[in-house]
């Protein structure tokens, strides 16, 4: 058995801890929920699973789960795996898991097992790594027709100041080697967010009675920019909430100086190295 993530969620707008009933009410009222993760942290994924269970119960199974870590080219393999007609090994091969994502699949298995057992639909939200790499290196002109088809016709470049500050930090921390210019990096991130937003919109229109849970790295929706902004431009009336994760060791400082990272921040006690 896994040790769960616990329940310690803060509303950063008022800087207070949230009762579980209040959080459930917020989730129930939303059409789209973004549940974040710090990749490689098991308890973050278990927190995502708790939200998924909550939504599935409230919506009587009418939930589509979006997976940012899967390229949309892996949608057929995802569909077959959730339907029980594809083995785990074939699923990993069909989604090119090791090259397109690379994180230990056992961290995600509880989520996908729940989706399979409850016959939930899944949506691959990501772009293939090769496509993103071309954009990041300023080689959009080299995109093949199949790659172009995965991108929205219009890709507005991110303009939210707080989100831009975060991305500049990520860009510098990533040790840009000179081959990746800031403007190209920003465009590649913008393209990934817009493609995911278009994908979420597509599935919500296809399943109008369903809610949507988007599982993504925290950096994809911080400050309710990124993917939520891409969806908001397409479905302005849809109610969205975001839940990012932080280490519980940061809680005291956060309560003194709350940051509007998301609508809710789930604080999780993480070991130095989280293992499945």
Task: Provide tags for this entry.
8-stranded mixed sheet; 12 helices; alpha/beta; 276 residues; Rossmann fold
Q: Which percent range describes the beta-strand content?
A: 15-25%
Helicity range of the residues?
40-55%
* Overall residue-averaged pLDDT value: 94
Question: How do the helices and strands follow one another from N- to C-terminus?
Answer: EEHEHEHHHHEHHHHEHEHE
Could you name the CATH class of the domain at 30-125 and 193-268? Alpha Beta
Q: Major β-sheet, in short?
A: 8 strands, mixed
| Rg over CA atoms | 18 Å
Total helical elements? 12
Strand tally, please? 8
Spatial strand sequence of the major β-sheet = 2-1-8-7-3-6-4-5
Q: Given the helix and strand composition, which structural class is it? A: alpha/beta
CATH topology call of the domain at 30-125 and 193-268: Rossmann fold
Oligomerization status of the protein chains: single chain
Low-pLDDT sequence parts = none
Cα end-to-end separation: 10 Å
| Architecture (CATH level 2) name of the domain at 30-125 and 193-268 | 3-Layer(aba) Sandwich
Tertiary shape: globular
């Amino acid at each position: 058995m896994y040790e769960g993530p616990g329940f310690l969620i803060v509303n950063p707008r008022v800087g207070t801890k949230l009762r579980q009933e209040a959080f459930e009410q917020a989730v129930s009222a939303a059409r789209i929920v973004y549940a974040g993760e710090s990749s490689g942290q098991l308890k973050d994924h278990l927190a995502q699973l708790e939200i998924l269970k909550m939504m599935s119960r409230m919506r009587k199974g009418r939930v589509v789960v979006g997976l940012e870590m899967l390229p949309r080219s892996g949608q057929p393999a995802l569909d077959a795996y959730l339907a029980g007609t594809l083995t785990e090994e074939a699923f990993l091969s069909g989604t090119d898991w090791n090259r397109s994502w690379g994180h230990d699949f056992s961290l995600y298995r509880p989520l996908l097992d729940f989706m399979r057992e409850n016959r939930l639909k899944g949506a691959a939200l990501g772009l293939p790594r090769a496509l993103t790499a071309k954009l990041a290196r300023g080689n959009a002109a080299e995109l093949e027709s199949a790659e172009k088809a995965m991108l929205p016709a219009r890709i507005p470049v991110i303009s939210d100041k707080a989100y831009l500050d975060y991305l500049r930090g990520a860009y510098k921390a990533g040790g840009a080697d000179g081959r990746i210019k800031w403007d190209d990096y920003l465009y590649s991130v913008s393209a990934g967010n817009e493609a995911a937003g278009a994908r979420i919109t597509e599935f919500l229109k296809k399943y109008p009675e369903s809610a949507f849970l988007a599982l993504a790295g925290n950096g994809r929706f911080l400050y309710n920019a990124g993917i939520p902004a891409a969806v908001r431009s397409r479905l302005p009336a849809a109610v969205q909430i975001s839940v990012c994760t932080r280490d519980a060791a940061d809680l005291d400082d956060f309560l003194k100086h709350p940051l509007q990272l998301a609508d809710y921040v789930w604080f999780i006690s993480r070991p130095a190295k989280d293992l499945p």
